[in-house]
Write a structure and sequence with these properties.
Elements (H helix, E strand, L loop, with lengths): L3 E10 L2 E11 L4 E5 L6 H9 L6 E6 L2 E2 L10 E4 L11 H11 L4 H14 L15 H14 L4 E5 L7 H18 L2 E6 L2 H7 L2 E6 L2 E6 L1 H6 L4 H6 L4 E10 L2 E5 L5 E3 L9 E7 L4 E4 L5 E10 L3 E8 L4 E7 L11 E6 L5 E4 L12
Helix pairs in contact: 2-3, 2-4, 3-4
The protein binds adenosine-5'-triphosphate (ATP).
Length: about 350
Amino acid sequence: MSEIIINNARKEYNGLAVIPDLSVSIPEGTLFTLLGPSGCGKTTLLRMIAGFNTIEGGDFYFNEDRINDKDPSKRNIGMVFQNYAIFPHLTVRENVEFGLKQRKLSKDEIKKNTDKYLNLMQIAEYQDRKPDQLSGGQQQRVALARALAINPDVLLMDEPLSNLDAKLRVDMRQAIREIQREVGITTVYVTHDQEEAMAISDKIAVMQAGIIQQVGKPKELYHRPSNEFVATFIGRTNIMDGNLIKVDGIAYLEFKDGFKLAFPLLNKEEEQPVRISIRPEEFIRVEEKGDFEAIIKDSIYLGLNTEYFLELNYGENVQMSEESTFYENLNSGDKVNLKVNTKKINVFTSDGGRNLLGVSE
Ligand SMILES: Nc1ncnc2c1ncn2[C@@H]1O[C@H](COP(=O)(O)OP(=O)(O)OP(=O)(O)O)[C@@H](O)[C@H]1O
């Protein structure tokens, strides 16, 4: 098992830097996810760790071992891809045995390890089938068993669930999580699906244009995103233009119409224009006068939750999410009073680049 340390990694394609200068350390035994929109460089970084890409700069370590000049086959890595990449002409058992035979282990060891991972991945009953007689989810279990059977130091997974249907994706991510915990292997997991990343990861690195925007536990990223990009990429949020102003030394958030909300958390900051982020579930409906008045414009019923589209009293449109109740219905045109838990608000610089509240790490 290894800690992975990457210092100042740089990757160019045709003279253009896809990853300009990236440093990150991935603690031993964690499931660490690279999350970001298509084209942000997740796969490129994963391939750099595997040694499949030439690199223009940087140092890569597994523990104290600098692996830059190590051949990919010598890095002791297990890999699982989107398109399974298991051998169609081999049975399930032969697929799982494959890497072990290459390593010239004894027959007993090969059998022991193969049985272990066939059982762990719950595919022992299909061991004599060929891959084309398996479902997508079962094939992905074979790929994972094959990757783990060689006892790799590091497991790399590139969008392993994106070929599966929605329900199977949820089942499989649970299976991957359980197996990863049980084996305790340092795992780098690539996805562009923020919900999947939240569900599966110990830690997430949010990437944009080859740059890591923030590294943190799922809760930390959701609660205190380091900038506006992270706030909008992880979950949903309402972003509003406003000002941070001071009255008698106390900070207030001033919204578009001059409406002010006391915000003592930022008493130490200078007055400045800001971007205010309030998640839909942080608008709480109250009977008495709240922080805002609003009119319901539209709603979507989603079972557990109902999403409301609201117009605040000063004309700004926002979304509110609340748990659905069977009896109560809000209709378009209804007036509501809303409160906001100020601890859950995030405030960014006017360019969205920095959270004035800092981040949890
Ligand atoms: N072999 C290549 N030659 C030139 N450009 C490349 C090559 N491979 C990737 N790129 C470019 O590098 C950037 C990062 O690609 P990468 O595949 O790492 O992104 P990604 O975040 O994994 O995206 P996706 O989620 O779509 O797989 C993209 O702009 C891509 O077009």
